[in-house]
Each structure stands twice: as C-alpha cells, then as structure tokens.
User: What shape does this take?
Amino acid sequence: MNEDFIKSFQSTVGQNINLCYQCRKCAAGCPIVYEMDYTPTQIIQAIRLGMKDLVLKSKTIWLCTSCETCTTRCPQDIEITDVMDIARKMAVREKVVPGIKDIPDFYKSFAQIIRIFGRVYEFGVIVLFKLRNRKFTRDLGLGLKLLKYGKMSLLPNLGKAFQTKKMFLKVKKIEEENR
Ligand code: SF4
Ligand code: SF4
Assistant: This one.
C-alpha cells in the first residue's frame, strides 16, 4: 500500500473516492470495458488500496475515452472520468511506461494539431502519429477509405488558427506569472 499515492490522488481529484461501495454500475455501463485490463470499479478500488503500479501501468486509464457514462451512473457521484484523467497525468509525469504504447503518442499528436490549427485536422493527426510510432502501413486501407468517401480532408481548415495561437500564448503567460 502506497499511502503517499492515496493522499496525492485524493487531494488532486478533490473528492472522496472512499464513498465508492463497489456497486459496479460504472463498469457495467462503460462502453469499452471489454478491452480494459481492469474495470473502472477495480481501478477505483486499487487507488483506495494505494496500488500505484497497478493503476499507473494499466491499459484502462489509456483506453478510457472520457465519455462520462460511469460518472453519470455512479450513485455516489464519484467523478470517475476525472479519476482516469488524473491517473493518466500522473503516469506521464512519473514517466511510467504506458499500458498501451500507442495511445500517448496519439494524444500528443492530437494535442499538437489542436495547438497549431485550433481544431481537429484528422490527416495531420495521422501523419504526426505515424511519424511517432513508425507503423506506416497499419490502417492504411482504412485511411484510404476515409479519403475516398470524403470523411477526411487532406488540407487543414485554418479558420481558428490565429485565435488558438493567441489563447495558448495567454495561458502560457498566466502559467509563467503563477510560477
Ligand atoms: S458506480 Fe460509483 S459507487 Fe459504484 S462501483 Fe463505480 S465508483 Fe463505486
Ligand atoms: S469515462 Fe472512461 S471509464 Fe467511464 S464509462 Fe467512459 S470510457 Fe468507461
């Protein structure tokens, strides 16, 4: 049991996850629980028991899509989506090898594109993602289909790029002032 982990998690998440009584409603409603190595219910319990390695190395925290179904269903109003988000941030901060290697690469590529263009630009996300994971031919057929049916554009929409740049600069300034 890692007590520092429990304390740090509880203070960061700002809610009492000990209110969880393991009813499993969160796991029962999660749309991708079948792919997870531990259910959301098990992750909550592992945090309460201070099982830091299990939580931060799990696939679950990276597979969670933040859909909030679990949070909506929880009779104890536990914000499970936030719990997953904080676990991911902790895993990155502590340089834990992710349970699924590709997903952090995808997150980074996605965030980078939003920073540059201010909105999703799927083709750009894919290019950055492929440059990171170097699996150039995987899902190639799917990508070509998306292009063929007009579901993905080769060119970005630059409509919000300037505003986004301004927003990121403003946030950076605030962060520097608060350091
Ligand atoms: S739904 Fe809430 S109370 Fe029930 S197991 Fe999940 S977190 Fe715990
Ligand atoms: S927020 Fe994550 S853990 Fe909760 S139901 Fe959605 S995918 Fe599952």
User: Anything to note?
Assistant: The chain has two domains: 3-93, 102-177. The chain is about 60% helix and 0% strand. Residues 102-177 form one domain. The pocket of iron/sulfur cluster (ligand 2) is lined by residues 29-30, 32, 40, 64-70, 80-81, 84 (CB under 6 Å).
